[in-house]
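Submission sheet (multi-component)
Chains listed below:
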Amino acid sequence: MRHSIVLFILLVAAWLLWSGHREPMLLALGALSCLGVTALAARMRVSRYEDPYLFALRTVTYLPWLTWEIVKAAVDVSKLVVARDLSLSPRIIRVPASQSTEIGQVVYANSITLTPGTISLDLRDGHILVHALTREAAEGVLTGDMDRRVTALEDRA
Amino acid sequence: MWIDVLTWMLLATGAVFSIIGAAGILRFPDFYTRTHAAGITDTMGAGPILLGLMLQAGKLAYAADWSVDSVLVIGKLAMVGAFILLTSPTAGHALFKAAFAAGVKIETDDQGVQRFDGEGGDDVPG
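Outcome: structure written.
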């Protein structure tokens, strides 16, 4: 219930900010759609995650690091594209996802995919199957650096 | 003035990476490697372009004396970026998984799956 209330308030705030409308008719429609989304989220039990707020707050330090990783990786893949000879060494690797929550695993898998040169294929038994464009890209994931940083976003029980 | 210079640099960076991404899609050999190339446009293509546009929106907001509506434009551009960060990996993953499920062969340099935990392995699923 607490989650639903917070979600509803956030949705209304977002609706007001992005739409910029203040007519009663549109406000009512906006409130209605926010209510609908809140009901859907409750039905999907999005709120089964214990405490998403602290998690979201901790990404403040994670995001700049991830951005820099993305820039470096994008430059690496770009070099492969413009190189005279294509020197790809695609491979599939299996890396552990040490996160204890679903949201943590999703953030880790999404971060891997967001970094050019690596894409997560599957998540099962606490491991992520990753398709890497080159040996170097694979080794980057295998260091487990990103894994540790995402795990650090979770609550330390 | 310096904001315009910075904007141009960001827009040019985004454009260059977008072109490189497109070239990669054409140049890379198979479905999976091409998806990697497309990933460049999602991040280094869209990112700098959105940043450049946010700078320009900031300039306009400054001219409009930071009125609510003009500041909101910056926020909206930031949200576009946030949504791209959430949706593009999801789409890339869905594409990959769909191709994988449909049996598109994955060319690899080595055989099977390398395991990080040292268990050795040949358990490529599918």
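Remark: The two ends of chain A are 23 Å apart (CA to CA).
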